[in-house]
Design a protein that fits this description.
about 425 residues; alpha+beta; two-stranded antiparallel ribbon; about 40% helix
Length: about 425
Amino acid sequence: MTTQEKLSTQDTKRLLDHACCSSTNMTAAKVAEFLDVPAPRISEGRSQAWRLTAAHASKLIDKFGQPRGKPGIFVRAEERLSIDEFIDSELDYSKYRDLEKISKFYHSKHFNVQLAEKLTIIDETSLDFEGSNDDGIEAQKQHYKLGQVFALMETDEFQHWLIAAESFLDKINLIDSYQDPQDIFLKFHSITYCVIDDIGNIDPTQNLSYSEYENSIFGLFEKYNIRNDSITTIDIFNLGQLNNHFNDNGRVNRFDHAKPLMKEFIITGREIWVHESIFNEYKIGGKSIDSIFIPKKDPKHDWKYVLFRDMINLLSPMKSNELEFSVDRWTTYKVSIFLNDNCDYSLLLELGSQYFRSGDPYHYPDRHIVIPEISASQLFNELEKIRKWLTLPDLPIDNIKYKIARNGGYISGATVI
């Protein structure tokens, strides 16, 4: 900050209040004289109608020290400017979080180790794996297998197959008799040995030849010394889609626009209402699978997620009921309203995701959202919006108004006597 840049009205008020109260003989006039500003500026600054410069602030801190802040609560939270902004962005931000978790999983050491273990080298005789022990040789084999598969996925032949395979899945999706994702899986497997250039013209209602072709996806894996039957055709397809999406080191996130600013807050207002409970129906987030896979038609059912989940299940020891690890599932919440010194309000929303397998439900916050400023005139309109999102039957309006009045707040329409 340059010496002529101005502080916020809140910081100005805090510094001037501290200076004026530093001793019994310190007056606003003396502070004005010390800063070489007109005397009225001090009262204006203390009422937040005028702001100090950075140079003024430095002089005050050098002479009077840093002012002590009001007691408050510290929280690192997402900043949203309104309830509407929070609600409107929630689906895309949920997909953002989902995609980040998938990216982290895809780039994890665990995923790569499990993938390498599923792959089989066709011919090891021409390879020279050297090491002092079996673990060292096995690590070299894993490195080789992963290198071969990821190099294969960069070829034009594989990219051509990926597009043709996507088209074939779209055709299967249009057939009414294929309702079960596993039926789709089995039909999709039939293109494993088909010539890549022919896949786009195949009618999925017809029986396909299972003859092995040199220019099939099987043949391509053979060229890279990897048996493709060590993982399924749908796993190959999923892996190729993931590789294309995350080929920029996992930095691709098509929902980045919904990511909120993370800030550190000290909330110093007086808490006038707090409510903690469980969601009657858990808040389930959006899935980002559609942003990775690129179907040309809307599926009749969520086959993409089912088949992607199957691949994760194959490559991960996680239990099936934990496979929704990448999708938000909020089970509990806590919402608090704080009355600030300027008679505006701040809102803090906490979301928790605990399972309740036994015992009483408890709230442990995994996520914090802060709306720093809600005007007094709009407070109850905003509370109604958050009430609907939380699915509360009603709000204790009179009780909230009672606490506002007890703490010196403003209630629109109320007569002050």
